[in-house]
Amino acid sequence: MFYQALYGDFGMWVRPLSMFLESVEVDGEHVPRFALVEAEPSLFSRT
Fold this sequence. Notes:
It holds the Pfam family DUF1653. This is DUF1653 domain-containing protein. With 47 residues, the chain is mainly beta. The chain is 11% helix and 30% strand. The mean pLDDT is 86.
């Protein structure tokens, strides 16, 4: 799985699909490593 950060230096990363889809532990809770974040339409609107 190839992906690019949408912040900072916009780094590019490659992970095996299984690692991209796995869960990780955060504050004792298992959560997806990545989750879809829907953007507010106004963030991408031309003004």
